[in-house]
Design brief:
2 domains; Spore Coat Polysaccharide Biosynthesis Protein SpsA, Chain A
């Protein structure tokens, strides 16, 4: 791909943005607003909003949004995936309907910066790059858990790009060359978690293409604000660990025991609180640092439970093809 000449967009690659959506009535207005503000040439961009069997007002909101966007010269498409309850099946529906040379993925709880598409496309000027991961930062929130997630950089791509088995990026902010899917297949439709790593690993193991990280392609992600949803998210991460272990043999995380919890809480009370209180008084720490350890332990326990209870369904091993 040639460099993006701002004076001649005719040579810019075509892009398909794909977003799986499940019960997104609260998130959709902000997401749609972000998508309509993208600086990438609208004649080169199409957007696929895939409803994955929502039970709220998602369908109505999408219908109105598509009509409005099309009236403004934007190519928005409302698709449905009602047969398989999986974000990866929904993404596959978008992939199969798309025509773009580059497929760009995000989620309904994300808020892309206006130059997001433009920035995530730029690394593809290097012919060895097949996957590009953009940056994920926290959408500012008021709850304790949102502030914790921001401080802990819960979804930062940099940690995944350092994965000891093989680097990968999350589909909350990921771009892949369309032609690659013809070589390795698209997402495993019955997989419910771990598909981000799976597709990136298949590409890197079965082709010559590499993954690149671009910090300029920024998306704000809305973190969980309630304990129940936070624990559910971490259990899903644990489930992902188990699935990827069964698919690739990657090492499982350490199991969280009662002894781990007791030792962790004891260390927090005896060591962390005194030290971090002093740092807080000196302006060298944030108040969230004082309670980070117990939240870490809650997350550790939830992730451990998810990993222990999960078992990869036979169907989830299936790869769908273009």
């Amino acid at each position: 791909m040639n460099s993006l000449n701002p004076n001649d967009v005719s040579y810019w690659p075509t892009v398909s943005v794909i977003v799986p959506i499940y019960n997104g009535e609260e998130d959709l207005p902000d997401l749609l607003d972000c998508l309509t503000q993208q600086t990438y040439p609208k004649e080169k961009t199409e957007y696929f909003l895939v409803d994955n069997n929502s039970s709220d007002r998602t369908s109505d909101i999408l219908a109105i949004a598509v009509e409005k966007a099309n009236h403004e010269g934007l190519k928005f498409y409302h698709l449905t995936e009602n047969q398989i309850q999986s974000s990866y099946a929904a993404r596959n529906a978008g992939i199969k309907a798309s025509k773009g040379e580059i497929l760009v993925f995000t989620d309904m709880d994300c808020r892309p910066y206006p130059n997001w598409v433009e920035e995530i496309v730029k690394p593809f000027t290097n012919p060895s790059i097949g996957i590009v991961a953009g940056e994920l930062i926290a959408l500012p929130g008021n709850s304790l858990l949102e502030k914790y997630a921001e401080r802990a950089e819960i979804m930062a791509q940099k940690f995944l790009l350092e994965h000891p088995f093989c680097p990968y990026g999350q589909t909350a902010n990921l771009a892949i060359l369309r032609d690659i899917f013809k070589k390795v297949g698209i997402f495993r439709p019955y997989l419910t978690t771990g598909g981000d790593a799976d597709i990136c690993w298949r590409i890197q193991r079965e082709t010559h293409y590499k993954i690149e990280y671009t910090p300029k392609a920024i998306i704000q992600h809305r973190h969980r604000s309630h304990l129940k949803s936070f624990q559910s998210q971490l259990r899903r991460y644990g489930c992902s660990n188990r699935y990827l272990h069964e698919l690739y043999g990657v090492k499982l995380m350490q199991e969280c025991t009662t002894q781990d919890i007791v030792l962790g809480v004891s260390r927090w009370i005896v060591q962390d609180i005194p030290k971090k209180s002093i740092k807080l008084l000196l302006g060298r720490a944030d108040w969230i640092d004082l309670i980070r350890t117990p939240i870490d332990l809650i997350g550790f326990q939830a992730r451990s439970i998810g990993q222990k209870e999960a078992k990869l369904p036979q169907k989830a091993k299936q790869i769908e093809w273009l």
